[in-house]
Design brief:
Layout (H helix, E strand, L loop, with lengths): L10 E8 H4 L2 E6 L5 E5 L2 E6 L2 E5 L8 E6 L5 E5 L2 E6 L2 E5 L8 E6 L5 E5 L2 E6 L2 E6 L3 E6 L5 E5 L2 E6 L2 E5 L8 E6 L5 E5 L2 E6 L2 E5 L8 E6 L5 E5 L2 E6 L2 E4 L10 E6 L5 E5 L2 E7 L6 E3 L4 E4 L3 E9 L11 E4 L6 E9 L4 E9 L7 E9 L5 E3 L4 E6 L2 H30 L4 H8 L1 H4 L4 H4 L5 H18 L18 E3 L10 E7 L7 E7 L2
Parallel strand pairs: 30-37
Antiparallel strand pairs: 1-28, 2-3, 3-4, 4-5, 6-7, 7-8, 8-9, 10-11, 11-12, 12-13, 14-15, 15-16, 16-17, 18-19, 19-20, 20-21, 22-23, 23-24, 24-25, 26-27, 27-28, 29-31, 31-34, 32-35, 33-34, 35-36, 35-37, 38-39, 39-40
Length: about 525
């Protein structure tokens, strides 16, 4: 991203002057008195605070492209309409009779000769005259440590041999060569029309061909050692042998043509869409209005809204934003809207809290910086999630069933054990009246033969002891055909010596008798 002039803290840039004022910005020059001169598509400008003041309007310079401070203090300016000298706030044309067209670069040789690279070729300044040396279109110069002068031309890379240009690195299709950068480790990087290259002897090696940089035009070594690269497709950072795009969304800078580090450390960027100021880590300085805390029923969507006030806020997009403090998938994405006059962005997010249990959440909005790190935007939002009545039913119904199931199983086991000694327990397990109540599942188990034998074995023993003198009680069974009166063969297996008879009145009468009869 590109950011505001008042911050030293992702990387973000803020436009200082727009394209209609300056046109594209091509170069910078810091004068001895601290004045910063800026070359643009629409002429020469002086930076006054955050304003650009046009100077030298008496001359039709066209594009201002390059600067050179001579040893005698004279400032030479290369433009699309030729060579000029700055005299106060006025521009004076030099050798109008020589058709150089665009002057792109200067190089002061060790012997004092000033070489000038132009569209019409290579020139040498002799007093106030320009002397043609070679017709190759020249874009940039670089003096190597061994004294070799490398020249970037329209048709590739050259080495100056006397007054002749010798092509090198032909194995690579670089297109035009626009700039050079000597790294701290001695590596020479070369910016070309078709990407970034490294010079290895007399050979050129392409770097990260997969990254679509377009024309590589400018280099800037940051204080932390990072190398920033300006290209026609935006701003990039060199990470090993990879080029990482760091700008291009939100604020449209267009191609990056030049860098300048001001005395206060601010990095200025000259781009095809105007002048920009680069900011480091802007989100620490952003003013963020987070939403209030929320109490919400589980499953209901919660709308949250943040307002971020910062010149860099306009560059924020969906891919920069995340929410922490909630499981993945709960956030339904972001809706973004801009207020360009206030340099503010409103960020709306909808969250569906769908956890299995009610609990509080701390929702934090995060923004990604160009380093890849996500940092907080404002404070976290407290959201307390509670349940609606259906949630309670769903959650607790299984527990209630389990509790009742265990309780009933316990009661049933106690009834079975107690039925061997207690008539009440026996009746609960066998009486049809009880079976019509909520204990029907107990009553249904009265048909379990082995269980009945185990229960009845003690009853038989007790009855035998009590009726040893009169073992059988005479009785007559009668009924009106509607009551459950009859002989039972289902409760006791036939291998028993005794057969059980039971008599039961109409439902609800509570009359139950048990009679033991001898088989046969």
């Amino acid at each position: 991203m590109l950011g505001p002039p008042d911050l030293q803290s992702a990387t973000c840039s803020v436009r200082i002057e727009e394209h209609p004022v300056t046109g594209g910005i091509n170069g910078f020059h810091a004068a001895r008195d601290g004045t910063l001169l800026i070359g643009g598509e629409k002429g020469l400008f002086r930076l006054d605070g955050d304003k650009l003041v046009a100077i030298g309007r008496e001359q039709d310079t066209g594009w201002i492209i390059a600067f050179h401070a001579a040893r005698d203090g004279t400032l030479l300016i290369g433009a699309s309409n030729g060579l000029f000298r700055l005299d106060g706030d006025k521009l004076v044309a030099i050798d109008k009779g020589q058709n150089t067209e665009w002057i792109n670069a200067f190089h002061a040789a060790r012997d004092g000769t000033l070489l000038i690279g132009a569209r019409k070729g290579l020139f040498r300044l002799d007093g106030d005259k320009l002397v043609a040396m070679d017709a190759e279109r020249i874009r940039a110069f670089h003096a190597a440590r061994d004294g070799t002068l490398l020249i970037g031309g329209q048709k590739g890379l050259f080495r100056l041999d006397g007054d002749k240009l010798v092509a090198i690195g032909k194995e690579q299709d670089t297109g035009g060569i626009n700039g050079f950068h000597a790294a701290r480790d001695g590596t020479l990087l070369i910016g070309g029309q078709k990407g970034l290259f490294r010079l290895d002897g007399d050979k050129l090696v392409a770097i990260d061909k997969g990254q679509n940089t377009g024309w590589v035009k400018a280099f800037h070594a940051a204080r932390d050692g990072a190398l920033m690269i300006g290209a026609s497709n935006g701003l990039f950072r060199l990470d090993g042998d990879k080029l990482v795009a760091t700008i291009g969304k939100g604020l449209d800078t267009g191609g990056i043509n030049a860098f300048h580090t001001a005395r206060d450390g601010t990095l200025l960027i000259g781009a095809s869409n105007g002048l920009f100021r680069l900011i480091q880590r802007p989100w620490a300085e952003a003013k963020v209005s987070p939403p209030d805390s929320y109490d919400v029923n589980r499953g209901l969507p919660v709308p949250l809204e943040w307002t971020v006030v910062h010149p860099c806020a306009l560059a924020l997009s969906n891919v920069d934003l995340t929410l922490s403090g909630i499981p993945q998938g709960w956030s339904k994405g972001f809706n973004l809207s801009n207020d360009t006059q206030k340099a503010a962005k409103t960020i709306s997010a909808t969250i569906a809290f769908a956890d299995k249990k009610a609990e509080p959440y701390s929702v934090q909005l995060l923004a990604k910086e160009d380093t890849g790190e996500s940092v907080p935007l404002g404070r976290a939002v407290a959201v307390r999630v509670d349940w609606a009545f259906p949630d309670y039913v769903k959650y607790y119904s299984a527990r209630v069933v389990a509790i009742f199931g265990v309780a009933h199983a316990t009661v049933f086991i106690l009834l079975i054990i107690g039925a061997r000694w207690s008539a009440l327990c026996w009746r609960v397990l066998t009486d049809p009246v009880w079976g019509k109540t909520g204990l029907w599942f107990y009553f249904a188990l009265r048909h379990a033969g082995p269980l009945q034998r185990w229960i009845m074995s003690r009853w038989f023993d007790a009855v035998r002891q009590k009726t040893s003198r009169q073992p059988y009680l005479p009785m007559t069974l009668s009924g009106d055909g509607r009551g459950p009166v009859g002989r039972s063969t289902d409760l006791l297996y036939r291998d028993l010596k005794w057969q059980r008879l039971w008599v039961q009145g109409n439902a609800g009468m509570g009359k139950t008798a048990m009679v033991l009869v001898q088989r046969g």
